[in-house]
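I am sending you the entry underneath: sequence plus fold tokens. Let me know what the token row says about the fold:
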Amino acid sequence: MRNCAALFLFASVSLLPVLGMAAPAPNTAEPELPPLTDSDSTFAGNVSALNSFEITISKMATTHAKRRKVQELAEKLLKEHTANQKTLSALTLKHGLALHEEMSSDEQQIAEHLETENGSKFERDYLDLQAQASSDALAMFQNEAESASDPDLKAYASATADNLQTQLTDTMKLGANKPSR
């Protein structure tokens, strides 16, 4: 699983191209606000893919994990990332940007590998992936909270960074290995 964690780290720190992860919204209505900058659009596309990954593996953990505490964490993260995705989608749509809610191919491979596990091995790998994802995302959100051009996106990034810090702490309490970085 260390290979999966390393692969995830590589996938999460490399920027996903904006094309394929985010696209202009269909011409159903004029956007309320000017388009997001390329940097803000890239951030939104990366977050959308990461939310999809987190939702997918948290759904798995609700049934594959052995300990009730891990299942409860997974249920909490599933709700948080689903709400996070809805908030982000609504925010970007105001700028005329529709997000694709698909994982990167690397994240898809990791999720497929995790699906084959169960019990304590699944829990260990799930917690390690969650800790690494939270750590990587925390840095990305903190950067966006400082540098976003759009004030709403800046506020969203700041508020979400606080939640990510809590997620990281929660996964560590349940036995996740310290994320690499």
Remarks:
- Residues 39-95+114-175 form a domain with the Ferritin fold (CATH 1.20.1260.10).
- The longest helix spans residues 119-147.
- The two ends are 17 Å apart (CA to CA).
- DSSP finds six helices and two strands in the chain.
